[in-house]
Amino acid sequence: MTHIAINITKAPTTKDYINFITTSDSSVLSGFKDKEGTFLSDDTLDTFINDELLHDDYTLTQHSKRKLLTLSSGERKKALFDHLLKGNPQFLVLVNPFDSLDVSNVSKLKERIISISEDTPIVQFFSRKDEILPCIQYILEYKNNAFSILQLSEYLNQDHDNDVEFKDPLPKPISKQAKPALETLIELKKVNVSYNDKPILKDISWTINQGEFWELKGANGTGKSTLVTMMIGDNPKAYGQEVYLFGYKRGSGEAVWDIKRNIGYFTPSMMHLFKGQHTALNMIISGIKDSIGLYQVPTDLEVNLAKQWLQLIGLDTIKDINYFYLSETNKRLILICRAMIKHPPLILLDEPTVGLDDKGAMVFIRLVQKIAKESNTAVLYVSHKAEPELKPTHIFELEHTDQGSIRKTTSAN
Ligand SMILES: Nc1ncnc2c1ncn2[C@@H]1O[C@H](COP(=O)(O)OP(=O)(O)OP(=O)(O)O)[C@@H](O)[C@H]1O
């Protein structure tokens, strides 16, 4: 049985690769010839979510009677996998299968896939090398306008990554704030959350102060997203509890914008919001006005500041290139600069490296480290993937109990 892997961060599209695999005359790919693949991917999941929303079709959750959108990432992936396997796929296409899964769910899914791989061919699209499945024998690459098949060992021995450093200092904010900066940004006191009588969070107390660098950790379903939505003013469960956000007690008549303007937020799923025809430079400038794209003529000061950010990330030579055509890594670096140009009190990064390759993730993390070190902006980083270069000063870890998740005592390195 042949199993192959493909680096998803390299062009062309997944569809082009699968077309090649199913039509190629290569003897290595004979197990895929004229077969139809079954996709375990976020796109497949989105189709089921749309079917729920638009057609009340609850195929994936009919046993649990829950909506897909209310399941945590790990729970959704498991529901999809269980459903797809019932159809006895001719071959399985796994698109970044371990994204958003905690360590224990990664190893459970890995075991399951390995057992399936005994009689079902696998195509794995990956972005991080350490996620390549142990059953993979070959890597399919597209280089110099042609597909080529390499032995896995040959691929791993290639020299992929060269080093990147951000040498310039972090650009300063455009103007001094009129009000003195808040020392305590977020304070939760003994917060409890439950859904349909199921306890999710139990007695959670947490204070985030100016300039601190936090990582929020916890297994799938422990309530990280629930906590994050409370902090960005998006969760009504915060009302009536002691939740203080940027000087406002939640539910004291504040507008949601009073909270959101303090936060530079980034998660990969928001990339689709930025599809307009805007230059790299204008994308960064638009962060000053919090608009998507630029609709006012910027001042010279604003243009110069955005150029400094581009220079910091080594993209000053492509300032006039359409953002849409940049690499995934460069797009994300630009969105972080866009979020940071105003030096907001807090930037919140929710699984920001999902979908990036090893080098992209390394570069991204280095920029985050630099921001945490050289600015007064507090950083809150939410993730499952252990990033070797991520060095938060504080860790908030959730631990599941029958009464809801509690804070586990964890200290940063
Ligand atoms: N609107 C809702 N209705 C019912 N249950 C919900 C709702 N939102 C979340 N939950 C449940 O609350 C629990 C915590 O979910 P949450 O998404 O906050 O966890 P998480 O730690 O972010 O998980 P993951 O790492 O998998 O993304 C899960 O069991 C989830 O199913």
From TrEMBL:
An annotated Gene Ontology molecular function: ATP binding
Pfam name, any one: ABC_tran
Annotated keywords: ATP-binding, Nucleotide-binding, Transport
Top-rank lineage group of the source organism: Bacteria
ABC transporter domain mapped to chain residues: 186-412
Family according to the record: Belongs to the ABC transporter superfamily.
Full protein name: ATP-binding cassette domain-containing protein
Lineage, broadest ranks: Bacteria, Pseudomonadati, Bacteroidota, Flavobacteriia, Flavobacteriales
